[in-house]
Specification:
alpha/beta; UDP-n-acetylglucosamine1-carboxyvinyl-transferase, Chain; 2 domains; 4-stranded mixed sheet; 24 strands; 30% helix; globular; binds uridine-diphosphate-2(N-acetylglucosaminyl) butyric acid
Length: 432
C-alpha cells in the first residue's frame, strides 16, 4: 500500500462459487508462536505454513524491535526466528500501538531481561477488550505490573515462579500467554478455566516440542511444570479454521460447490452444525473439505461462545449469509461488544437487520444490492465481501487493510472460485 492511499475491495456479485482454494495457516496460532520463539536463545525456530497477513508482519516488527532476527519467506510461508541475542525489553509505541500482539512478548522479555515495557497497545476495533487476566496472571507469578497512562512496565528481576492462576472467562490469548510465562517459571503452575480453542492446543504442541512440560490442554484446566530452558524447534502451524469457515460461509451466501484444501472440519465446532442447518453440505476427503450449497438457505439461531461454541470471528460472516436465508435469523454476540458495526453497512446494501436487546434479527431473504460500504474490523470486512458476492451489482469495501490483517490473497483465492473480486488503492475521501 502506498503512503496516503487505502486498499478498497471491489466485488461484483451474482456468481455461484466453483473451484478449489488453499486454507492458510492459523493467524491466531502463528502470532503466539512468533512471540514464544523468543523464549529461547538456543537455535533458530522454523515455523511453516505461516500466513502472509498484516498481523503476522506486525508481530515480526515487534520481534525485530527487541532484537530478534527474523526472515519471512512469504512465497514458501516459512518464518525463521533467531532470538539468540535480544537487545531491548521495550516494545516501542509506534509498533506496539498497532498490535495487541505486543502483550504476547511479555513472557519472553520477562524471562530474558527481567522486565518488559509496552509503550502502547493496539488491535482491532472490537469494543472494550481488556488484558486484565494477563496482567493479574503475571502478578500472581511474581511480577510487578505498573500500568501508566501510555506505558505498561512489568518487572520480575528475580524471575517468575509457579502459582495457582484462574481466568474469569476462558480467554484464548490469556491462556496461551500464561502458559508461556509459566513454562520457564520454577515450580508448578495450575491455570483454571482455560480456553480450549484448537489454536491453544497447537501452541501447547509447539511449546512442548521446545521442551515445555504442559498437561491438560483441551480440558479447561492446565498444569505447567516449569523447566529451566527451552530450545528452538521446527513446527507447522495448523490450518486457520476461521479462514476455512469464511470460505464455507461464502458458499452459503453465494451458492456453489468448492474444495477447501487443508481445512479441518473437526475444528469447526458448532459452526459446522449451524451451516448444515442452513442447508450447507460438507464432505471430507482426506485433507480436502468439500462444501456445497444448492438449495435455498434456511434461517438460523446463533449465540457466540468460546470453543467449541460458535466462533465470534465467524459471527459477521454468518450474518452476511443469513441475509440470503428465507425467514428470520437470530444472532447474539456474547464475546465482544463491538461486533455489530457491520449491521448498518449490510442494511445499506438492502439487508433488513435490527438489533433488539443485543440480538441481531436478520429478516431474510433480502435482495442485496451493491454499494459503497466500510469495513470496521477484520471479520466484519470479510463479511462485506461475502455480502458483495451475494449482491446484485458492484460493492466497494473500503478500509480493506483491516481484511488484510487476517486473510491472505483474497483476490487470488476468490478468483480461483470464479468470483469477481479485486483490490485497488485509492485516495481516501477528505471529510471536513
Ligand atoms: N477478556 C477480559 N480480560 C482479559 C482477556 C479477555 O475481560 O484479560 C474478555 C474480552 O474482553 C472478551 C473475552 O474475555 O470479552 C474473550 O477474549 P479473549 O481473551 O478470549 O480474546 P483474545 O484472546 O483477545 C482471541 C483472538 C480473537 C478471537 C478471540 C475469541 C487472537 C490474537 N485473537 O482474542 O481473534 O476473536 O480470541 O476466540 O488470538 C480475530 O482473529 O479477528 C480475532 C479478534
Amino acid at each position: 500500500m502506498t503512503k496516503g492511499t487505502e486498499t478498497r475491495y471491489r466485488v461484483r456479485g451474482g456468481t455461484t462459487l466453483h473451484g478449489t482454494v488453499f486454507i492458510q495457516g492459523a493467524k491466531n496460532a502463528a502470532l503466539k508462536m512468533i512471540a514464544a520463539s523468543l523464549l529461547t536463545s538456543k537455535g533458530r525456530t522454523v515455523l511453516r505454513n505461516v500466513p502472509p497477513i498484516e498481523d503476522v508482519r506486525r508481530a515480526i516488527e515487534l520481534a525485530q524491535a527487541v532484537g530478534a532476527l527474523v526472515e519471512f519467506h512469504e512465497p514458501e510461508r516459512t518464518l525463521v526466528v533467531d532470538a539468540s541475542r535480544l537487545t531491548s525489553p521495550v516494545l516501542p509505541a509506534e509498533i506496539a500501538r498497532r498490535s495487541r500482539a505486543s502483550v504476547l512478548f511479555v513472557p519472553a522479555l520477562l524471562h530474558r531481561f527481567g522486565e518488559a515495557v509496552i509503550e502502547g497497545i493496539g488491535g482491532c476495533n472490537l469494543g472494550s477488550r481488556n488484558l486484565d487476566f494477563h496482567y493479574r496472571g503475571f502478578a500472581r507469578l511474581g511480577a510487578t505490573v505498573d500500568e501508566g497512562d501510555s506505558v505498561i512496565r512489568i518487572t520480575a528481576p528475580a524471575g517468575l515462579r509457579g502459582a495457582h492462576l484462574y481466568l474469569d472467562t476462558p480467554s484464548h490469548t490469556g491462556t496461551e500467554n500464561l502458559i508461556m510465562a509459566a513454562s520457564l517459571a520454577p515450580g508448578t503452575t495450575i491455570i483454571d478455566n482455560t480456553a480450549q480453542e484448537p489454536e491453544v492446543l497447537d501452541v501447547i504442541a509447539f511449546l512442548s516440542r521446545m521442551g515445555a512440560d504442559i498437561s491438560g490442554g483441551g480440558t479447561g484446566f492446565i498444569t505447567v511444570h516449569g523447566v529451566s530452558e527451552l530450545t528452538a524447534v521446527e513446527h507447522t502451524v495448523m490450518p486457520d479454521r476461521i479462514d476455512a469457515g469464511l470460505f464455507a460461509m461464502a458458499v452459503a451466501a453465494a451458492g456453489g460447490e468448492i474444495n477447501l484444501v487443508g481445512a479441518n472440519l473437526d475444528h469447526f465446532g458448532v459452526v459446522r452444525w449451524k451451516l448444515e442447518q442452513m442447508g450447507v453440505e460438507f464432505a471430507s476427503q482426506g485433507a480436502v473439505l468439500q462444501v456445497r450449497r444448492e438449495r435455498p438457505l434456511r434461517p438460523i439461531n446463533v449465540v457466540t461462545s468460546p470453543y467449541p461454541g460458535f466462533a465470534t470471528d465467524l459471527q459477521s460472516p454468518i450474518m452476511a449469509a443469513a441475509t440470503m436465508a428465507d425467514g428470520a435469523s437470530y444472532i447474539r454476540e456474547t464475546i465482544f461488544d463491538g461486533r455489530y458495526t457491520l449491521v448498518p453497512e449490510l442494511n445499506k446494501m438492502g439487508a433488513k437487520i435490527e438489533i433488539d436487546n443485543n440480538v441481531a434479527i436478520v429478516h431474510g431473504a433480502a435482495g442485496l444490492h451493491g454499494c459503497e460500504v466500510t469495513a470496521h474490523d477484520l471479520r466484519g470486512g470479510a463479511a462485506l465481501i461475502l455480502a458483495g458476492l451475494a449482491a446484485e451489482g458492484e460493492t466497494l469495501v473500503s478500509n480493506g487493510y483491516l481484511i488484510d490483517r487476517g486473510h491472505a490473497t483474497m483476490v487470488e483465492r476468490f478468483a480461483a472460485l470464479g468470483a469477481d473480486v479485486s483490490a485497488e488503492e485509492h485516495e481516501p475521501a477528505i471529510v471536513s
